[in-house]
Specification:
Length: 428
């Protein structure tokens, strides 16, 4: 959510930020509504003050035995005028809030201009794509040949964009989530949370999924939303809170199922596990001060990268352009892992600094250790990592000519010492 006070002082900068997002200017429209809102608020307050004076005058006139009928008529007229001004103020404020709620965060100054992924910048690469003395297969081909990845039966159960994982692949999925959570909690200081998977409107509004992304989520018959990512409940842990600066930064992590309708991805990645309606993801969320948020963004991204390093996977880090970022982000790094079966890098983590944008929507603030008053916190979120896509990357990068898949050394303790997922169903 945008701060109307900041917009009043920076209308041209506000419109420039929207233009970088590919959106038309609207500062003039919002400020016109704001002017009317403040005028109506002032009128209502003035009338209320006059009614209070009249109430005192009525008491004094009664004591003097004077006719109070004119005062009572004025009091009644002012009551109607106050109600009308208050209603007008509420209408205008609702119009302002509706416009601002539908506008994305403004990009940071160092975010590259551009309206799509073609303007994204490669910041760094880790490793070189592996060579194979055979034609590398895609993950779905590997999984189906192993007899451990079943899209047909998943389709009978639930339709398209679902999968059933069996035996070693089900265990590998579980091992990956546990490995990631152990790394983030034991070495990087994140607090593990087991959050609800169903949330209210206020929660998805607070992180920016509502109102714009409603079609990309699943809603239950009683009005709750299945979380599209654990970012929603983790970030909303501080909603409507005033935090002590000395406790910041707060760092949360959770490994949860995530649910997305993928309404905006019709026809994309219809084969395999790249884009599913249900998937497991380990999420990272930080809550910090404005002064710390840039450094926290770098730190979070490095934490996500470390997962890939320990798994021996090749990746690159991208700085997203203004038009390619998510709704709530002011700056985003995408981490893309190399998939030999596709011969391409694909996103496996997206780490975003949302600045005060989500905090304004959630009313999340902190009290500075020095000084007075409160300030909005800054919130950050990232995948640490998407478990399904990490499983895909392991299958494709660790595949062997005989159809088996080697298990990365970092995961072997979580697999009971198993080193290979074999084609014949045996393990070793």
């Amino acid at each position: 959510m945008h701060d109307i006070r900041w917009l009043r002082d920076h209308p041209a900068e506000f419109d420039r930020g929207l233009a970088r997002r590919g959106l038309p200017p609207c500062a003039e429209e919002v400020l016109a509504l704001d002017h009317g809102w403040r005028a109506a608020e002032t009128r209502a307050q003035e009338v209320l003050a006059r009614r209070n004076r009249i109430a005192r005058d009525v008491g004094a006139a009664k004591k003097r035995g004077e006719d109070i009928a004119p005062l009572l008529r004025q009091f009644a007229d002012d009551k109607d005028a106050e109600a009308a001004s208050a209603a007008e103020a509420a209408r205008l404020r609702a119009a302002i809030d509706a416009i601002l709620a539908g506008l994305p965060n403004l990009p940071a100054d160092d975010v590259p201009d551009g309206l799509d992924e073609t303007a994204n910048l490669v910041l760094r690469r880790e490793g070189e794509p592996p060579g194979f003395d055979f034609e590398p297969a895609s993950h779905e081909a590997i999984g189906e040949r192993l007899g451990l990845m079943d899209f047909r039966r998943a389709g009978k159960l639930s339709g398209s964009r679902f999968v059933v994982l069996r035996r070693d692949l089900a265990r590998l999925e579980r091992a990956l989530a546990q490995f990631m959570l152990d790394l983030h909690t034991r070495e990087f200081g994140y607090e593990e949370i087991s959050p609800p998977l169903l949330v209210r409107d206020e929660a998805v509004f607070g992180t920016g999924q509502l109102p714009k992304a409603a079609e990309d989520m699943f809603r239950t018959t009683n009005g709750l939303w299945l979380i599209p990512t654990a970012e929603v409940p983790l970030t909303n842990l501080v909603a409507d809170e005033i935090l002590d600066e000395r406790l910041l930064p707060l760092r949360f992590t959770a490994g949860t199922p995530s649910f997305r309708s993928e309404a905006g991805a019709a026809g994309k990645d219809t084969r395999g596990m790249i884009r599913q309606h249900q998937f497991i993801k380990v999420e990272l969320v930080s809550v910090t001060t404005p002064e710390q948020s840039a450094a926290e963004h770098e730190r979070m991204t490095l934490c996500a990268e470390e997962v890939l390093k320990r798994l021996g996977l090749v990746y690159r880090v991208m700085l997203l352009s203004a038009g390619d970022m998510g709704f709530a982000a002011r700056k985003t790094y995408d981490i893309e892992v190399w998939l030999p079966g596709q011969g391409a890098y694909r996103e496996i983590s997206s780490c975003s600094n949302c600045g005060a944008f989500q905090a304004q929507r959630m009313k999340a603030r902190y009290r500075p250790a020095e000084g007075r008053g409160t300030r909005p916190v800054h919130t950050l979120n990232g995948s640490g990592l998407a478990v399904g896509r990490t499983l895909i990357a392991i299958l494709e990068n660790y595949q062997q000519a005989d159809g088996s898949v080697s298990i990365p050394a970092a995961l072997q303790p979580y697999m009971g010492g198993q080193t290979v997922i074999a084609r014949d169903g045996s393990s070793r």
